[in-house]
Amino acid sequence: MRDVFRRIGALVVVTDLDARPQLPDSVIREAFRLTAAEGRLASIRAAGEDLRKAADCLGVTYETARAHLKAIFGKTQVSRQAELAAVLAKMAR
Fold first, then answer.
1. What's the burial of 60, exposed, middle or buried (CB within 10 Å: 0-12/13-18/19+)?
2. Which of 11, 20, 39, 45 could form a disulfide with 29 if both were Cys (CB 3.0 to 4.6 A apart)?
3. How many CB atoms neighbour CB 1 within 10 A?
4. Mean pLDDT of all residues in the chain?
């Protein structure tokens, strides 16, 4: 096995630079004691979707998504979406 790369002249690695790691909502729920709906919203937001698109993905109104987001803020002890994104990004590493 140590000679497996002996004849290779080049190695190409393809990666999507825009891809964000998807943090499972179950991990987020357990870490912050979120409800299932809050965990799904947090996971979608962690992937970079804005709140309106997240609401559409979840099949809820924008106002419902905002209410869930406020609950998430309280449970994660942050006060802004940028802070939440930073907390969730650290978890995804």
1. middle
2. 39
3. 4
4. 88
Q: Which CATH class is domain 25-92?
A: mainly alpha
Spatial separation of the C-alpha atoms in residues 91 and 68, rounded to whole Å = 20
Angle in degrees, 0-180, between the axes of helices 51-58 and 62-76, rounded to the nearest 10: 110
Q: Which residues of 11-48 are buried (b: 16+ CB within 10 A; e: fewer)?
A: eeeeeeeeeeeebebebbbebbebeebbbbbbbbbbbe
Predicted TM-score (pTM) of the model is 0.74
Q: Each residue of 3-22: pLDDT tens digit?
A: 766 777 777 878 777 666 67
Instruction: Check if the beta carbon of residue 87 is closer than 8 Å to that of residue 22.
Output: no
User: Domain extents for the chain?
Assistant: 25-92
pLDDT at 1 (0 to 100): 55
Q: What average pLDDT does range 24-52 have in this prediction?
A: 92
